[in-house]
Each structure stands twice: as structure tokens, then as C-alpha cells.
TrEMBL record, chain A:
CHAD domain location: 203-492
PROSITE patterns according to UniProt: CHAD
Provenance organism: Crenothrix polyspora
Pfam families in UniProt: CHAD
SMART domains with a match to the protein in the record: CHAD (SM00880)
InterPro entries the record matches: CHAD_dom, CHAD_dom_sf
Lineage summary: Bacteria, Pseudomonadati, Pseudomonadota, Gammaproteobacteria, Methylococcales
Protein name as catalogued: CHAD domain-containing protein
Automatic annotation (TrEMBL), chain B:
One Pfam family it belongs to: AAA_31
Occurrences of domain AAA (ranges): 1-165
Highest taxon listed in the record's lineage: Bacteria
UniProt protein name: Cobyrinic acid ac-diamide synthase
InterPro entries with a match to the protein in the record: AAA_dom (IPR025669), DNA_Partitioning_ATPase (IPR050678), P-loop_NTPase (IPR027417)
Length: 508, 246
């Protein structure tokens, strides 16, 4: 295992080298300035998987290394001129195999960087075989670091040097990655973004104050995703931006009678507009993200003919993205967003006029969740094999409202119980979401097919698209069969008992 | 984990150079790679400057008294480890013969390493013996270097017959040309004939070059000290093997 030591200010690299040289044959391999840049996705996917991604650039080489956050063990390493944005842009080697399932569609971004002077030494035996690697990093703003990289099968040498360092220089091993020190110096910390809601509400908070806190959290999520959405860094900025918009819309319509009517009307319209201007780009993103999967649904000899469809979708996405960026740079957007932020930041009215504003947030949460839960059950029970698709679409929207309400208020309830209910609701939502996605994609694909026929696309392309449309239809029908089972699982008596116990405290 | 054995009945055809250089290329691409030196001459151990010594001796190794892991030595290169051999391994057939199911023993020893390595290269001694059969059982691929000469060609035929006779269908036989002199007409003719008779033969050829011979002086894989045509040939051969494995 790699051992790191932090050198106190009074210990210099030269002193350290002198101590180690007395014991072993030390070869200076290199001494050069290095720029270390740390990479991760915006939502810290690598860090969450205990991976530290470090890009070291020097005049000699540029190396990207993945190491384990806790053990510092090297996981993968490759020489690169620059770090690609997406895992699929790496050449097909180990690095890509590790990054692809973790990052998926998210882009790698530079998180922070630091300059240092790096000394690399090898301790060699009589055969000039390296038996231990030593690295000293000298920083301007941080304590210098010494790292020992033992070679498998030569552990005794590493043990001997650790003893020398501990006894003569009184150093203790540390297991804190340098990344954490750099972030700390910038008043940042890892995992500082997650699309999951974690709103610290307490049961006795006044409902209007609590709802402002919820909306402020959502506004923060929207704002941090704004520049990435405009720059189209990856598709998930827009995805999370839209989630913040949808949650806000649900909040404005479902956390009723707490905020003044004029505010609710004004901002409902604003967030509805945001939903509209972002939907086309997101739909096209989903098409492009799933394109390889779609291709696999048609016979091998027709797959290449779908490239024309890919071109059409990519062109439409570029156009839609441009339009979206224009909207998000408009005066309408910035003025209304600033007004919303100003309202949320304003001092709460001591005598609110709204009927539910003075309720405790727990009482309001119980009321709203229980009511929407009952609506989910009622709408779901009305669905059978003959019900038109619109009913499933309506139920999907009601489920989403219930999910967001439960997520807004989850701090008010026993964590294990509400998390379990949310999980089960999510399973039902997945079925309804897939049904809706297939229906929308099928419909849009028909539209694209007509458009491409007009522009004289080859018969093979049109045929492949027809097969895809048919495939969507089959999947849609299969999911509909699955819905009955999933809905029964959701409304089972055990769940109902928990819903009742948690949320029906003031109602029958 | 894929096990690739550098194997030929004939000696001096480039097995060790193949094992060392292909393993080096795999490791450079980030794959966790191990070379197991099975030839008592200990040439691959020598190339990596690792002492030719089996901790506990060959007897304990074959009897399974130690896990292979304790015998592993890290090389001077990232992602690349080696299990050294020593002269006691010359009696390995006798030791194997003392075991129940002797031809399963190499595979059994390798099994616990499955999660630690992506590729294991076996540097095999030149012979057809009990150890060879154990290697055939353990390997996913038999990489067989052939010098484009009549004698070498004969050993390929013998190997093919041995595999067929013993129904050793598990390992994929991938011959490749080694020590090729592109100026020699005979080399060209034999290569053409082999490619026609054994379509599985890899297309990349390893030239006969003095910088490969220098590995003994440098004591490191070719790619670590040279960017020559020969170093590129091993890199290309590795890419071709990867494609075949896919």
C-alpha cells in the first residue's frame, strides 16, 4: 500500500533525502515542476466511487492517473496530451473500461489544480532492480509530501524506510488525499453537488417559511446548472435544471395557500415557460443518448442506415440547444429569476394572509401527501386494459407530484419508512415513465419519418425507422401489462398502512 | 482474467521475448498483467532483473503449499508483475506426476489470481511434456512463435497434431511469425504457406532485429528502451491479439 507523509515546515526535501540515502542506494530519477489538475464530473461520480482522477503535466509527460481515494492504490494510468471530456472519447483500454460505467453521459471537468516540484527517486538493489519508489512533492501553499510506493514482493525495504522516517524525522503517515487540502483552501468540499433533495426542515416551522426554504433549495439547484446548460457541457446539466423547474412547479401548485396568490400566479407562469423552452432539447438529448440502444433493435444490415436519422437528430438538437441558450440569456429570464430570488430572500411577513401559511410545515405536509396519495390510488384503480393512454399519463403526473412532495418533506418523517415508500413509488413511476417515453418517442419518430420521406431519405432508412416504431409499440404494450402488477405492488395493504400511519395523522 | 501461453516445442524461437514484450504492452495500456516464468532457464526473470528464486521451492509450489500470490514480484513497470522461476523447476514433470490430476495443477494455482490480473502470460519451456499439457489446460490462448523455416513449420504441425489427438479444444492456438527476415525469399514463401494452411495465424510479424537481442544487455522490455520498428511490431501484435480475443 502507498504510504504518504506530510513534512512539517522545518523538514526540507534535502534533509529527507540525506536520511534515506544513509540506508539505501537512492537514484534520482527526475526532478521537475508539475501541474496537477483534479478531474471529476459535476456531480462527483468518481469521488463517490472512491476514485481520485489526477492529471499531472510536466515538460516530460502528461499522465492521467486513477487511484483509490482511501488506499491511494493506483487503479489505472495512461499518458495523454489532454483529458477528453467524455469516457467514450478515451481509447479502448483499461481507463475507459473503468470510467465508462461510472461517468456514463457525464463530462469530466477540471475541479481544481496545484503546482508543485516533484522529485522522484528509486531505491535499487545490487541488480539495479527498483525495490521502492519515493516521491517528494514541494508545494508553495501546502506542506510538502513524501510518498512511498512499495514494489510487490519487496515489502521489507519499504518497512525499513518507514522506520527510518518515523524514528529520525518523527513523521506520521497520513491518508488524506491532496485533493481535499486544495478544496479546503478554496473553502470547498467534495460532493458539494447532488441532484437529490436534502432540505433541513423541522416539523414546527411555519409553513410559508418552510416553503420558501424549499424553493430556495430548488433555485440553488437551478442556478448551479444554468451555465452548464447554456454551454451544453453534458446533457445532465439540462436534465437537473429541468428537474429543479418541475419540482418548483409542483411546489407552487401543491404546497398550497402558503405564498401570496399574486406571487404564485406570476412564477407558475415563469416556471411553466422554463419547462416549455427546455423540453425540445431534452427530448432530443434522450434520443441521442439512447441511439446506440435503438440501433441494436434493428437487424444488423439496417443499422448503418439509421446514421441519417442520427444526423437529423443531432442537427435538430444543435438548433434547439442554440434557441434554449438564447432564452436563458434573455432579459425575461434574468429579470424573472432575479425577482424570484429577491422574493425568496425577503423577510417573511409576520402576519401572512394565506390560510395555511401559519400551519406548521408538518401539518401541511401530512395533508398534502395524504391527499395526493389517495389520488394516485383512485386514478390507478380506474385503469384497466381498455383505459385510454391519457389516463396512464395523468397517473404518471400525479405520481410525480407525490414523489416530489415526499422528497421535499422527507426530513419530517422517519427516514427508513419514508425512503422505503419513495423507493416503491419510484418503481411504479419507472413503469409509467417508460410507457410515456415509448409513446412519445414512437409518435416523434413517425413525425421524423414523414419529414425524412419528404426529403427523399433512402428506403432502407425509412424501413429501419418503421421497425423501430413497431418495436416501441411492442414495448409499450408489454409495459402496459406490467403496470397492473406494479400498481398492485404499490397499493398493497402493508404500504397503505405505512402511508396512513405517516401522513393521515389528522384525517381519516 | 485471460491466460496467454507463449509456447513452442522448439527452443530459441522468441517465446520469452514475446512474453516479456507483449506483457509490457498490455501493462502500458493499463491492464493488470503478470508474467509467470515457467522455464528453468529463467530468462524472463533475468530480463526484469528479478532473482531466479522460487520462495519455498518448486516442490511446495506444485504441491500448492503456498498461494502463488506470495511468489509475485513487482517489476520496474506499472501494472506488470512476475513470478520468478529457478533451476529446481527442471524437475517439474516429476513433481506434477506426484499430484492427483497433474494436468489441472497450473490452472488450479492460477485460479485465485483471477480478480487481481487482467492478463497472465506464461513463458513456457520448449518441450512437449506433462507441464505442457497442464499449460494447455490452463491457457485461453496458445501464442506460438514460428521462425519461417522448415523445422519451425514442422513443430507447428506437431503441435497442431498433439492438440487434435488430445482433444485440447479449450485453448485457441494463435501462431505468429518471429525473427522474420523480410529480405529472405524462403521466409516469404513459408509465411505465405502457413497463412494459407493456418488462417488463425496472426498477421503481424516480429522482425529479426539486433535491438531485440539487446534485451539481454538492457535487462528490460524492448519498449522501455527503444521506439524501433521491432518495438512497434510487438505493440501491433498485442493490438491484433486483443482484437482476436474480443
Amino acid at each position: 500500500m502507498v504510504t504518504h507523509f506530510e513534512l512539517p515546515a522545518h523538514v526540507t526535501a534535502e534533509q529527507l533525502i540525506a536520511s534515506v540515502s544513509e540506508q539505501s542506494s537512492l537514484h534520482l530519477v527526475s526532478k521537475h515542476p508539475v501541474l496537477k489538475t483534479y478531474y471529476d464530473s459535476f456531480d462527483w461520480r468518481l469521488y463517490r466511487h472512491d476514485i481520485i482522477c489526477e492529471f499531472s503535466q510536466s515538460t516530460q509527460a502528461s499522465i492521467l492517473q486513477l487511484s483509490h481515494r482511501k488506499t491511494s492504490e493506483l487503479i489505472a494510468s495512461t499518458t495523454l496530451i489532454e483529458v477528453p471530456s467524455f469516457s467514450t472519447q478515451f481509447s479502448a483500454d483499461k481507463m475507459r473500461q473503468i470510467l465508462e460505467p461510472v461517468l456514463e453521459m457525464r463530462a469530466l471537468r477540471a475541479i481544481c489544480h496545484v503546482e508543485c516540484l516533484v522529485y522522484q527517486f528509486d531505491i535499487v538493489n545490487n541488480d539495479e532492480k527498483t525495490v521502492l519508489r519515493i516521491q517528494i512533492e514541494e508545494f508553495e501553499r501546502f506542506n510538502h509530501r513524501l510518498s512511498l510506493f512499495p514494489i510487490k514482493g519487496y515489502d521489507k525495504v519499504a518497512g525499513r524506510i518507514v522506520e527510518v522516517i518515523a524514528e529520525q524525522l518523527k513523521l506520521c503517515a497520513i491518508d488524506r488525499p491532496l485533493l481535499l487540502d486544495i478544496l479546503k483552501s478554496q473553502s470547498r468540499h467534495p460532493k458539494d453537488y447532488s441532484s437529490k433533495l436534502d432540505i433541513p426542515l423541522s416539523p414546527d416551522m411555519r409553513a410559508d417559511i418552510a416553503s420558501k426554504l424549499i424553493f430556495s433549495n430548488l433555485l440553488h439547484m437551478l442556478k448551479v446548472n444554468e451555465s452548464g446548460t447554456i454551454a451544453n457541457i453534458d446533457t445532465e446539466f439540462l436534465h437537473d435544471f429541468r428537474v429543479a423547474v418541475r419540482r418548483t412547479r409542483v411546489g407552487l401548485s401543491q404546497v398550497k395557500n402558503t405564498l401570496p396568490d399574486d406571487i404564485v400566479v406570476r412564477f407558475k407562469e415563469f416556471f411553466s415557460w422554463l419547462g416549455q423552452i427546455t423540453s425540445e432539447t431534452r427530448d432530443l438529448d434522450v434520443y441521442l443518448l439512447n441511439f446506440e440502444y435503438y440501433k441494436k433493435q434493428v437487424p444488423v444490415d439496417l443499422r448503418a442506415s439509421l446514421d441519417l436519422l442520427h444526423e437529423l437528430l443531432a442537427a435538430k438538437q444543435r438548433q434547439a440547444q442554440k434557441q434554449l441558450a438564447k432564452h436563458l440569456r434573455s432579459a425575461r429570464y434574468s429579470t424573472l429569476l432575479a425577482a424570484w430570488e429577491a422574493y425568496l430572500g425577503s423577510t417573511p411577513n409576520n402576519k401572512p394572509t394565506q390560510v395555511d401559511a401559519k400551519l406548521t410545515i408538518k401539518a401541511l405536509a401530512d395533508l398534502r401527501i395524504w391527499k395526493v396519495y389517495k389520488r394516485v390510488i383512485k386514478e390507478g384503480e380506474a385503469i384497466d386494459q381498455h383505459t385510454p393512454p391519457e389516463a396512464l399519463h395523468r397517473l404518471r403526473k400525479t405520481c410525480k407530484k407525490l414523489r416530489y412532495l415526499m422528497e421535499f418533506f422527507q426530513h419530517l418523517y422517519a427516514e427508513r419508512r419514508i425512503t422505503s415508500l419513495i423507493k416503491q413509488l419510484k418503481r411504479l413511476q419507472d413503469v409509467l415513465g417508460d410507457y410515456q417515453d415509448y409513446a412519445t418517442q414512437q409518435q416523434k419518430l413517425m413525425h421524423f419519418s414523414q419529414e425524412m420521406q419528404v426529403s427523399n431519405a433512402p428506403d432502407k432508412t425509412i424501413m429501419a425507422m418503421a421497425l423501430l416504431i413497431e418495436d416501441f409499440d411492442k414495448r409499450k404494450n408489454k409495459i402496459r401489462d406490467h403496470f397492473t402488477w406494479q400498481f398492485s405492488a404499490f397499493k398493497k395493504p402493508e404500504n397503505h398502512t405505512v402511508f396512513h400511519a405517516l401522513f393521515a395523522t389528522h384525517h381519516s | 482474467m485471460k491466460v496467454l501461453a507463449l509456447y513452442s516445442i522448439k527452443g530459441g524461437v522468441g517465446k520469452t521475448a514475446g512474453a516479456v514484450n507483449l506483457a509490457f504492452n498490455a501493462a502500458q495500456a493499463g491492464y493488470r498483467t503478470l508474467v509467470w516464468d515457467l522455464d528453468p532457464q529463467a530468462a524472463s526473470s533475468y530480463y526484469f532483473r528479478i532473482k531466479p528464486k522460487i520462495k519455498g521451492g518448486s516442490k511446495n509450489l506444485i504441491a500448492g503449499k503456498h498461494e502463488l500470490d506470495v511468489l509475485i514480484k513487482g517489476t520496474d513497470f506499472d501494472n506488470l508483475d512476475l513470478i520468478p522461476v529457478d533451476f529446481s523447476f527442471r524437475n517439474v514433470d516429476l513433481l506434477l506426476d506426484d499430484q492427483k490430476k497433474p494436468t489441472k495443477q497450473i490452472k488450479k494455482r492460477l485460479k485465485p489470481l483471477a480478480d487481481s490480473y487482467d492478463f497472465i502470460f506464461l513463458d513456457c519451456p520448449p518441450s512437449i511434456s506433462l507441464l505442457s499439457e497442464a499449460i494447455f489446460e490452463a491457457a485461453d490462448v496458445l501464442l506460438s512463435p514460428i521462425i519461417p523455416s522448415t523445422l519451425s513449420l514442422r513443430t507447428l504441425v506437431q503441435l497442431k497434431e498433439f492438440i487434435d489427438d488430445h482433444a485440447l479444444t479449450h485453448a485457441q492456438l494463435l501462431p505468429f511469425f518471429s525473427m522474420v527476415d523480410s529480405r529472405k525469399k524462403m521466409h516469404k514463401d513459408i509465411m505465405q504457406q502457413v497463412l494459407a494452411d493456418y488462417p488463425a495465424t496472426l498477421k503481424t510479424t516480429i522482425p529479426c532485429a539486433s535491438d531485440i537481442e539487446r534485451m539481454g544487455v538492457e535487462r528490460m522490455p524492448l519498449g522501455a528502451y527503444s521506439k524501433s520498428r521491432s518495438a512497434r511490431a510487438y505493440a501491433e501484435l498485442w493490438q491484433e491479439i486483443l482484437m482476436r480475443l474480443a
